[in-house]
């Protein structure tokens, strides 16, 4: 049996979140209240209208290209891509073919703890098409709100070898787009769409780099669909190879989400079928020659300096500098807002720690001594307590500052509040947007530290649970947790669990 390997390439479309469309002033909103409201003669391809390039769309293309290590073309132009389809009112799409804005580049991904660079062929800019709404009653409608929205197409080299790699690449690209704030990149809303190209080849041809006819699976709108469709297609094509009938022509297939299979739509078009030629109504663009009258007002160095630290670099730094686990680092760098919030909290807690006069040593020695335990507390309360609150509230940011949350973490770290009371304080901080001291004052949540008062409650709990006390005195010391819980319940979570344990142990030894 011939050993085969998958050859996978991706074509990803990102809707840029500019205020207006690519060639006109219509609002860039594909989902307004009503269909066909954000449109104009340019969107509809009326005769005689002239497109004007959206400079912000060009700038965002440059930002992504520079972030992905691409090479900016010295000059480029737009092309007409000719084909006929109901969602294309002009009979052609304004795209880029021979001279894209960005050539080459790569994106590093991490698959099962191994880093891999996926090379890019190009990044180009084009206008989106309209949207077809199909009915079961043999008719379709067209919504032109999406027509003309600026669309970035990222084309990879055929470097991907597994469905998992494809999914992780898309997830990483989505994070990059969001970190750069160039696109919301929500796949479910069509702001990020993917076509996958897949073929198989015998492993013996690996050194000759021979490729076989590829299959393109169109318009996948979720990470799961990309991974599942590739898994299915690899099995389908493997079976054809085993039967001595490997694919002989390029085809385009769709993905049936309900039945988990691909189905053939048509033979795939070749480049010559689109009859590309330069768009006559738009000028050539130059990016490097200052003397060119076509140059756009972009300072490439300024754009480079404005680029944020990207997700994979931030993850590596979080792992190295703060000692987070890999799962923790992945969650806490999921988006720019959360990553910045996390880092500011850590810095605030670190500053508090080294400011304590009761701790001796250099700042670095103090931090290293307490870092692991502090980071564990911060990560736990961020991931397991704060993020669920944010998710339930469907918010993208936090209602309090990192400094406020750092004060809360310090309270927890010093064990001045029980876990139950801390959770109550955090929930009120989140709902009311107030700092921890104000919440404690407003709701009278001051931890109960009166030994005599707690001692009386401890005595009552011991007296009410003779069977548990007997088990403890027989050597089953784990049951003390039940008694601690009863005391905490009676004090409404406002007692120090450590103090409660000490008082219980003292009484139980009598």
Short overview:
With 510 residues, the chain is of the alpha+beta class.
What does this structure look like?
- With 510 residues, the chain is of the alpha+beta class.
- It has 3 domains: 4-304, no CATH class; 311-442, no CATH class; 451-508, Arc Repressor Mutant, subunit A, CATH 1.10.10.410.
- 40% of the residues lie in helices and 19% in strands.
- The chain contains 15 helices and 17 strands.
- The strands form 4 sheets. Strands 1, 2, 6, 7, 8, 11, 12, 13, 14 and 15 form a 10-stranded mixed β-sheet that branches. Strands 5-4-16 form a 3-stranded antiparallel β-sheet, with no helix packed on it. Strands 3-17 form a two-stranded antiparallel ribbon.
- Helix 5 (311-322) crosses helix 6, helix 8 crosses helix 10 and helix 14 (480-490) packs across helix 15.
- The chain is elongated, with a radius of gyration of 30 Å.
Key features?
three-stranded antiparallel sheet, ten-stranded mixed sheet, 17 strands, alpha+beta, 510 residues
């Amino acid at each position: 049996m011939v050993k085969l390997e998958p050859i996978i390439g991706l074509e990803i479309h990102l809707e840029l979140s500019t205020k207006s469309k690519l060639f006109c002033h219509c609002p860039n909103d594909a989902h307004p209240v009503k269909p066909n409201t954000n449109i104009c003669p340019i969107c509809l391809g009326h005769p005689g209208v002239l497109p004007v390039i959206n400079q912000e769309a060009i700038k965002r293309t440059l930002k992504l290209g520079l972030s992905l290590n691409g090479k900016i073309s010295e000059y480029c132009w737009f092309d007409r891509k000719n084909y006929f389809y109901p969602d294309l009112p002009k009979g052609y799409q304004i795209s880029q073919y021979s001279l894209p804005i960005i050539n080459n580049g790569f994106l590093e991904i991490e698959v099962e703890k191994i880093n891999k660079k996926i090379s890019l062929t190009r990044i180009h800019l084009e206008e989106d098409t309209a949207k077809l709404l199909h009915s079961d009653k043999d008719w379709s409608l067209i919504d032109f709100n999406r027509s003309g929205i600026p669309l970035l197409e990222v084309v990879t080299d055929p470097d991907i070898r597994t469905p998992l790699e494809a999914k992780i690449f898309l997830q990483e690209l989505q994070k990059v787009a969001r970190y750069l704030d160039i696109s919301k990149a929500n796949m479910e809303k069509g702001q990020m769409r993917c076509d996958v190209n897949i073929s198989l080849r015998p492993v013996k041809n690996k050194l000759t780099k021979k490729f076989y006819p590829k299959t393109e699976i169109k318009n996948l709108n979720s990470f799961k669909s990309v991974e599942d469709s590739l898994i299915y297609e690899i099995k389908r094509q493997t079976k054809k190879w085993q039967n001595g009938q490997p694919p002989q022509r390029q085809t385009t297939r769709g993905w049936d989400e309900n039945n988990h299979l691909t189905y053939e739509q048509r033979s795939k078009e070749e480049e010559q079928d689109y009859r590309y030629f330069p768009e006559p109504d738009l000028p050539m663009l130059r990016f490097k020659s200052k003397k060119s009258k076509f140059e756009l007002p972009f300072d490439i160095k300024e754009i480079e300096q404005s680029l944020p630290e990207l997700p994979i670099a931030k993850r590596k730094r979080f792992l190295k500098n703060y000692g987070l686990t890999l799962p923790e680092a992945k969650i806490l760098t999921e988006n720019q807002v959360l990553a910045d919030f996390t880092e500011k909290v850590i810095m605030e807690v670190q500053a508090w720690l080294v400011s304590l006069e009761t701790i001796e040593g250099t700042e670095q020695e103090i931090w290293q001594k307490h870092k692991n335990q502090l980071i564990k507390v911060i990560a736990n309360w961020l991931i397991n307590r704060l993020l669920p609150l944010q998710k339930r509230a469907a918010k993208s940011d936090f209602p309090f500052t990192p400094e406020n949350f750092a004060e809360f973490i310090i309270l927890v770290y010093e064990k001045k509040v029980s876990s139950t009371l801390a959770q109550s304080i955090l929930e009120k901080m989140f709902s009311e947007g107030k700092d921890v001291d104000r919440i404690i004052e407003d709701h009278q949540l001051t931890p109960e530290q009166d030994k005599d008062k707690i001692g009386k409650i401890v005595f009552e709990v011991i007296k009410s649970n003779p069977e548990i006390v007997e088990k403890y005195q027989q050597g089953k010391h784990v049951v003390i947790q039940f008694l601690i819980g009863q005391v905490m319940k009676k004090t409404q979570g406002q007692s120090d669990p450590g103090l409660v344990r000490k008082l219980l142990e003292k009484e139980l030894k009598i």
